[in-house]
Amino acid sequence: MADAPHPNPSPEGEGLYLRNLAAALASAAKSAKAAPGPRWSFWGSVQQDSIMANVTVIGSQWGDEGKGKIVDWLASRADAVVRFQGGHNAGHTLVVGEQVYKLSLLPSGIVTGTLSIIGNGVVLDPWALRDEITKLRGQGVAINPENFAIADNCALILPFHRDLDALRETAAGAGKIGTTGRGIGPAYEDKVGRRAIRVCDLAHLDKLEPQLDRLTAHHDALRAGFGEPPIDRERLIADLTEIADYVLEYAQPVWKRLKKVRKAGARILFEGAQGVLLDVDHGTYPFVTSSNTVSGTAAAGSGLGPSAVGFVLGIAKAYTTRVGSGPFPTELEDEIGQRLGERGHEFGTVTGRKRRCGWFDAVLVRQSCAVSGVTGIALTKLDVLDGFDTIRICTGYRLRGKILDYFPAHSADQAEVEPIYEEMDGWQETTAGARSYADLPAQAIKYIQRVQELIETPIALVSTSPEREDTILIRDPFSD
Ligand code: IMP
Question: What are residue 403's DSSP bridge partners?
Fold first, then answer.
């Protein structure tokens, strides 16, 4: 089919249009000035979004900061919860009374019945989606098109993405990233390479040929390099046909639904996955995930403008953990690290891998807060530090004789920096279950205050157990 003519085919055409528009606006302004009576306002003539306090929750370390509990706690007061990046590599554990819910892909709001949305910035594995919905329904959670929607322009994770993730990791030797093996990277690569199959394609499987040509041209060459057979197109179409209706039941232009929700004055909670140090731009590259995990992605990954992001709540553990490979300056490979891991139950929700543990790194969290515009921090798992005689906080780095107050960009420098520590007395009392500052030992309060000073960001809340109610609230992120 021939392309339709462009309305402004040349730069001169565009320039002319802009000049005409400027002239028209100038003349409208002139006549408005001259006209008697009430002044007509171009600005106020279109109904603006009502500005409600939205909240964006992001991890400010390497993920696993305890976002699930905080999001669940906030979700009970939100009208919609939106996932905007990542895929089923995320692991959110929610504890509600006796029930433990483990989510990887679905927004945490689904457990409370809050409208839950998967935004366009997510990469969606349709089979993982079906498994997770089936599991949650088995736990009594209601999931239907009333309370759950998926962006129709969301890119899909397909079976050969998972294969490629594994093949590349196996072949990478010392360069292994330690991915979750869910096909996240290859799916994002196809999206940016403009060969992804998206949710909306499931409604047009008969029109998939050109996209499949692009996809197989790329992947078959890669697969041949690994000694793998070409993609079986018929099988792929059959698999997609089998799952299509299941996904399409929830598919829609979610930017439109969110616009409506926002116009109605509802509160939106954006739920980040992973953490800022795994951000593809700002994290410990190349040991990162393949999406932007910073707060700004909430807008692009859901189809709302940047003003919708609202209060940015960064989640930080009172110490540090990381799964997978990559630099970790405060890592403790001794009995203290072991103790943090055991007390904090530091095993991955998705892969079950043991997490690496270390002291709180204020340099990293300060950097995460800066690049992500964090308004306030939720400090989690404070109780894991109970009973230590002394506690350390990293306040800077030494690199080849120089003192650094930031984390350098190059992975070799990141691996070489030596942490500079400040030491504080610990506390022997338990902080588990505390619900107000008055319940905390004086030393624990001193620790929180010192963390706050060093990261140059206020602490908005402190979480003292996996239970929803065990939270010390200092500033409510949802207060207008
Ligand atoms: P990928 O996202 O599976 O490609 O993995 C890339 C890196 O991000 C690996 O180091 C993973 O361990 C890490 N990662 C991905 N998702 C999470 C998460 O939810 N929590 C912590 N680390 C994660």
Answer: 398
